[in-house]
Amino acid sequence: MDAVNISADGSVLGGYLRQLQEHVERSLSNYLPRVSKPSETTCPPRLASAMRYSTLDGGKRLRAILCLMATDACGCESKLALPAACALEMVHSYSLIHDDLPAMDNDDLRRSRLTCHRAYDEATAILAGDSLLTLAFEILACEIKPEAVALRCITILAEASGAIGMVGGQMADLELGWRSTGKNREPDYDCASESAGELFILESIHARKTGQLLCAPLRMGAAIARAPKEYVDALSYYGKAVGLAFQIMDDLLDVEGEESKLGKRVGKDYHLGKWTYPRFLGVDESRHWAQQLANEAILAIAPLGPNGDNLRCLARALLKRDR
Ligand code: GRG
Predict the structure, then answer these.
(1) Are 84 and 220 in contact (CB under 8 A)?
(2) pLDDT above 90 (res 88)
(3) Which residues of 108-132 are buried (b: 16+ CB within 10 A; e: fewer)?
(4) Which of 260, 261, 321, 265 is nearest to 290 (CA)?
(5) Fewer Cβ in 10 A, N or C end of the chain?
(6) Other residues' Cβ atoms within 10 Å of the Cβ of residue 90
(7) Cα distances (angstroms) measured from residue 106 to each of 19, 101, 109, 114, 160
(8) Residue 260: is its pLDDT beyond 80?
């Protein structure tokens, strides 16, 4: 496979990545239900339309690309990982639909378009998210071979997206917001321990809320390639470091990014007084830390040798993203 073609401005959307994105886009479109005449055995057209609206056209497909690249880096055909890559994007898409709902972030704009509940309605958005989540696991169960590898992928994705992963991180983040605005709903456990530093709390929330779904693709890609433990560990470390660097860059884009490129409102987190890396470390120190994490990620995959070159390029390119 050719090395990642990163354009002069450092955009992650070089030729090779665009090619992977196109494969993912096509497969996603095939897996998603079609908008067809209502019948008892097909997906209701409104639901199919909302699932397609929120999932197709617009995402960077980073989670899918990480999965395909991990399989490739372990010496296996990346197309074997396409079903897993699509499952990851469906879980990601569900999380964004639900995150945008009035009960959560209450956002109107996502990927430069109206959010799902604004384009359709709240109930349809909830159901579209639910259907994407369940379809993701159906795809893994039916399309990944052999069954033992499918089971491993299902376990990785369930852990990463569930109560101890992304959903748990979202809950902890909401509680933190309630506490800082005096709307504490007295959770059973004070998950943000008094003695823990603010940065530690922030990091532990992000590790679950966004980090786990960025690490899972590497682990699933390695599982599909039936990689040795040394590779699995190296890719997991890479995933954790890149996941945190990605989040720091996301916080920086909220401060410095352009709304037209990001396709969502900027400055929202800052104005809401949310806990972010620039808030605690400042812009320069945050950027420096993201760079350090990318370097750590690059070092971690040394055992993969030249096969890891695309992942190394991606780690560097993510630091320059503008969307
Ligand atoms: C509601 C169950 C539930 C979970 C929500 C992931 C998440 C948890 C919320 C997303 C909030 C958010 C915007 C976090 C910042 C990092 C992030 C996940 C950004 C969006 O991911 P990208 O940039 O999006 O990969 P695209 O559109 O490119 O797919």
Answers:
(1) yes
(2) yes
(3) eebbebebbbbbbeeebbbbbbebb
(4) 321
(5) N
(6) 29
(7) 34, 5, 9, 12, 24
(8) no
Which residues, judged by CB distance below 6 Å to any ligand atom, belong to the binding site of ligand 1? 59-60, 62, 92, 95-96, 98-99, 104, 111, 166-167, 170, 209-210, 247, 250
What Cα–Cα distance (Å) separates residue 72 from each residue in 81, 220, 224, 237? 9, 12, 10, 17
Residue type, 110: R
- 239 and 86 in contact (C-beta within 8 Å)? no
* Measured CA angle at 152 (ends 215, 145), to 5 deg: 115
235 and 222 in contact (C-beta within 8 Å)? yes
92 alpha carbon to ligand 1 midpoint, in Å? 7
Which mutation among 17, 90, 99, 244 tests ligand 1's pocket best, with the greatest number of atoms within 8 A of CB? 99
Asked whether 110 and 264 are in contact (CB, 8 A), the reply is: yes
Distance CA 255, CA 275 (A): 13
- How does residue 194 score in pLDDT terms, banded at 50, 70 and 90? very low
Q: Check if the beta carbon of residue 75 is closer than 8 Å to that of residue 307.
A: yes
**What pLDDT is stored for residue 256 in this prediction?**
78
**In terms of residues, how long is the chain?**
323
Which residue type occupies 52? R
Residue 16 has pLDDT above 70, yes or no: yes
Give the start-end residues of each E strand in 62-157: 109-110, 113-114
Confidence (pLDDT) at 186: 57
Q: Give me the chain's average pLDDT, please.
A: 89
Average pLDDT of span 70-89: 97
Q: How confident is the model at residue 189 (pLDDT cuts 50, 70, 90)?
A: very low
Distance of alpha carbon 245 from alpha carbon 291, whole angstroms: 7
